Amino acid sequence: MKRVYRAASLLQVAHARNVLVAAGIPCEMRNLYLAGAAGDLPMMETWPQLYVEEADERAALRALTRASSASSEAPWVCEDCEEELEAQFTACWRCGFERGAKP
User: Fold this and answer.
1) Cα separation of 19 and 14, whole Å?
2) Which has the closest alpha carbon to 61: 45, 69, 102?
3) Distance (Å, rounded) from C-alpha 30 to C-alpha 18?
4) DSSP characters for 22-73?
5) CA distance readout (Å), 86 to 72, 75, 82, 89
6) Contact between 38 and 46 (Cβ < 8 Å)
7) CA–CA separation, 84 and 92 (whole Å)
8) What is the DSSP letter of 74?
9) What is the pTM of this model?
């Protein structure tokens, strides 16, 4: 197993796990309950970590890099309710209209 991600926040590691799961990459979260050992163990070793099989390491790192890159796409406007949405959304949060669908 190879460590591909670690962070002080469990929330960040859980998000990275979700990115990998969505990309079809099996992964395992570790160190979920070591925060209380900080001081007795090196601080960064107590942080939650994300591991993948060695064969999946490159794909996992690419998926995490892609997910962390800021989107260069422009916001879009819902054709149904005219709500302005950020580029990463494929459906309107207000009315559920799918981006690019015929009204």
Assistant:
1) 9
2) 69
3) 15
4) HTT---EEE-TT-GGGBTTB-GGGGS-EEEE-GGGHHHHHHHHHHHHSPP-S
5) 11, 4, 13, 6
6) yes
7) 9
8) P
9) 0.67
Amino acid at 101: A
Tell me the pLDDT band of 70, cut-offs 50, 70 and 90. Answer: low
> Mean pLDDT, to the nearest integer, of 69-93?
88
**What is the spatial distance between Cα 41 and Cα 103, in angstroms, rounded to a whole number?**
58
- The answer to whether residues 77 and 100 touch, using CB atoms and an 8 Å cutoff, is no
Q: Tell me, what amino acid is at 36? A: G
Spatial distance between the Cα atoms of 51 and 3, rounded to a whole number of angstroms: 4
Amino acid at 2: K
Three-state DSSP at 81 gives coil
